[in-house]
């Protein structure tokens, strides 16, 4: 059973009431069809209200849900003949980033994404989705390979941030991310990035210099976590909810600021409630982007990406 989040409590209680009435109908042979129908109609309205008016902190909680689909989940639904490739050819393999070659609707592509675990054991192996430098170098190796063979690149972003530990810094964490930013800016093939969970800081940007950036409706994209921002601004991580509102980290906020290109709608209650249905929505977004980008030549692809990032943060004065 999917673990409910705090803001979902009214919906859960009403669902339990409906289930209770259905059990009474079955066990006691009492006709309660009208009552059940009335509650189900009420449930539909309540779900539309709860899930349609989620605060930023509510979306943070959904983005972090332990059962939220991961990169490998979506790869299984969206791509055929996926072959995972390993290693950065310099130090080792980082399980926090997965990547390889696959087919998307008959088109050869390279797929890369952050990968977190579904349980404690896998989270430890994947370092909770926080890559080391070798993870970003592996990603870059696969991107350059894709460029060589003319394959579009599809990236899935889902990380709290790059791993900040001593070992990562010793092996050149900041240089590895910076190298990805520079190299991705000049790739001669289309790059499409989808934020499927948390898009945290430079750890997300290492896969985020794309022609098109999409975000799932309940994902987040920010320079720092709400807890981290609250600790810096107010010396109190408990004010994370307030920070989440102020930081403008939701898909709607980022779409309004023209930082992302498209919001991918989520199934009712969040992607974790229907991974297959969510994958279908993501697939439509990817197909739309590929239909646009794959008609461009290499120079146009680079120019398109350049204009996208040059336009972010442009200040426009209002009329007097």
CATH class of the largest domain: Alpha Beta
Rg on CA atoms, Å? 21 Å
How far apart lie the N and C ends? Answer: 56 Å
Largest sheet: 8 strands, mixed
Low-confidence stretches: none
The number of helices is: 14
CATH architecture of the largest domain: Alpha-Beta Complex
> Shape from CA axes?
globular
CATH homologous superfamily classification of the largest domain: 2-enoyl-CoA Hydratase, Chain A, domain 1
| Counted beta strands | 8
Determine the structural class based on helices, strands and strand pairing. Answer: alpha/beta
Topology pattern, helix = H, strand = E: HHHHEEEHHEHHEHEEHHHEHH
Total domains: 2
User: Share of helix among residues?
Assistant: 40-55%
* Residue-averaged pLDDT: 93
**How much β-strand is present in the residues?**
15-25%
At the third CATH level, what is the topology name of the largest domain? 2-enoyl-CoA Hydratase, Chain A, domain 1
Function: Component of the acetyl coenzyme A carboxylase (ACC) complex. First, biotin carboxylase catalyzes the carboxylation of biotin on its carrier protein (BCCP) and then the CO(2) group is transferred by the carboxyltransferase to acetyl-CoA to form malonyl-CoA.
GO cellular component, one term: acetyl-CoA carboxylase complex
GO molecular function: acetyl-CoA carboxylase activity; ATP binding; carboxyl- or carbamoyltransferase activity
Keywords: ATP-binding, Cytoplasm, Fatty acid biosynthesis, Fatty acid metabolism, Ligase, Lipid biosynthesis, Lipid metabolism, Nucleotide-binding, Transferase
């Amino acid at each position: 059973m999917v673990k409910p989040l705090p803001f979902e409590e009214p919906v859960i209680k009403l669902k339990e009431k409906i289930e209770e009435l259905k059990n009474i109908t079955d066990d006691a042979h009492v006709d309660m069809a009208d009552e059940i129908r009335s509650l189900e109609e009420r449930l539909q309205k309540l779900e539309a209200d709860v899930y349609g008016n989620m605060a930023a902190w509510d979306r943070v909680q959904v983005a972090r849900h332990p059962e939220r689909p991961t990169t490998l989940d979506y790869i299984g639904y969206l791509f055929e003949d996926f072959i995972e490739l390993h290693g950065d050819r310099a130090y080792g393999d980082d399980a926090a980033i997965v990547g390889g070659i696959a087919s998307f609707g008959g088109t050869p592509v390279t797929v890369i994404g952050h990968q977190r675990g579904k349980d404690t054991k896998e989270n430890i192996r994947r370092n909770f989705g926080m890559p080391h430098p070798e993870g970003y170098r592996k990603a870059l190796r696969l991107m350059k390979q894709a460029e060589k063979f003319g394959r579009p690149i599809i990236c899935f972003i889902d990380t709290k941030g790059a791993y900040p530990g001593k070992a990562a810094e010793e092996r050149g964490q900041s240089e590895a991310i910076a190298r990805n930013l520079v190299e991705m800016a000049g790739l001669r093939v289309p790059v499409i990035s989808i934020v499927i969970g948390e898009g945290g800081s430079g750890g997300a940007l290492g896969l985020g210099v794309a022609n098109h950036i999409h975000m799932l409706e309940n994902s987040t994209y920010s320079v720092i976590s709400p807890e981290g921002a609250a600790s810096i601004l107010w010396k109190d991580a408990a004010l994370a909810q307030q920070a989440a509102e102020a930081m403008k980290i939701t898909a709607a906020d980022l779409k309004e600021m023209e930082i992302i290109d498209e919001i991918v709608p989520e199934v009712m209650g969040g992607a974790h409630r229907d991974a297959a249905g969510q994958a279908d929505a993501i697939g439509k977004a990817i197909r739309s982007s590929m239909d646009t980008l794959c008609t461009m030549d290499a120079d146009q692809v680079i120019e398109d990406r350049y204009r996208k990032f040059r336009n972010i943060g442009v200040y426009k004065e209002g009329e007097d």
